[in-house]
Amino acid sequence: MWSALVLGILAAGSAAGEYADFVYVAPETTGKSAASAAMPRDAVQAWLQQDYPSRVFTAFEAKNGELAANAENPSLEVASGFPLDLNTEDLFGAGFQEGDEWVFLAGITSLDAHALRLLVDLSGLQAGDELWLLSPSGPGAHGPFAAAQTAQWLPTVEGDTAVLMLRTAAPAPPSLRLQGLSHFFVPLGAQAKATPCPTPVACETSSAGQKVSTGIAMLIIPSGLGQFQCTGALINNPATADTLESLILSANHCFSGEVDATQVDVIWDYRAENCAGENPPALADVPRSTGESILAQDSVLDGAFLQLSGAVPNGTYGRAWLGWDTRTPVLNDQVVVLHHPSGTPMKISYGHVTAVSVNSCLDVLCSHPVKYQTEAHWDAGITESGSSGSPLLFANVNYRVCGMLSNGNAQTCGAAAYNYDNFSSFRDFFAEIACHLTPATPCSDPLPTSACPAKSAFGPGSSEVAQLRSFRDKRLMGSASGRFVAGLYYQAAPAMARTVERSPLAREVFKAAAMPFVALGARAE
Looking at residues 363-375, what average pLDDT do you find? Predict the structure, then answer.
């Protein structure tokens, strides 16, 4: 009867798998970099050669190692920050007249920073006023930024210096306030381990794999006055093939706390030029996006789904919207992961599935349990801090997404036997984002924390759950055969609970099949 119960529940919850394949847009042929598209490089260089005031901060000078060692979340944190309260008069000097406009410049330096992000209040800008962010590394420019009601984190700039540029029709600069600074203690762009591990994405020989890699982004996510770094994937909504929606899939733990999606810096095409890992681009030269809203989050499944602002920019390699598949991975499925470990240019790792429906923890106290994960073992390549959220792809099924990197062990090049990761279950998270990918399907609520099908069916505090527990303790656990049956039940419980949560039919099947055991438990009390 127990096996019939299990099979009935799983069958009641099963359905034809949903899937979509990737869409690829060929690269533009303009040859313009992101920097020159915003402002010509020679114009940026000319402004950087002007004489302008500069603020130099020494709070984190020679402290990058200390900041990394003291990071509260070392698997994600790449920058620490400090508050500022500097207004226009504190920052800018005399302006430069250019035609009918005035230009005001101010340099900001945090000594020894590998990169910077600046938090600015733009509410004092007037109609027609523009703020630009100039990057001496590159050089390049980001902007223009107009008046905004909330403080804005500007894009990430490589190196320890950024330059603010105000353009206005008035001979005096408009009101602007610098409210904070993030100092990156992790060197973006450095090779985390010796080549060829992790493996530069340029080593991928499959044409489809190369196309799919263009849909991977490095995410810089504000956390207080610091910054987290993760990886995300651009996801295809087949219903909007003409407009190509800007939707990003990543991991929930990358967005823990009060994260404002509009402040997320999305960095595309950050990859080495060749398989040797040479010539990664300057951050000023790659396309950027910003977030708009978080559409779905689930801490139990460790999934996050974001809407980006505006259209995703094309780039040197083209752009792909990744396909996805809700089928359950099986043992030895060949998989790959595309990711940005430790802020480095994009890497690829190759492996195979070693377990499904794994439950694990994001911390040693297990205060953040994650359920229904897929475990992957890496045969070539590794992942590291910053790889979180990267997509797990079926290597032999058109590189469809089947998971998002959640957690794993510490990995070492040359020690493949110990290199594995757990990936969030896309097949389960899909129910919560289905309305964004298959518009005829509603989105469900996030999963509760219980992995017990009885709690999911009857409710965690119900008398039925108490009586089933009594049946287990007083009827089953007293004999070897009973303990064997209980063990089989607990092996199947995660998949059963998942199905009961997602399928009303499966819930009713479970209740009907469980009632004889409820009655036996009641008599045993």
Answer: 81
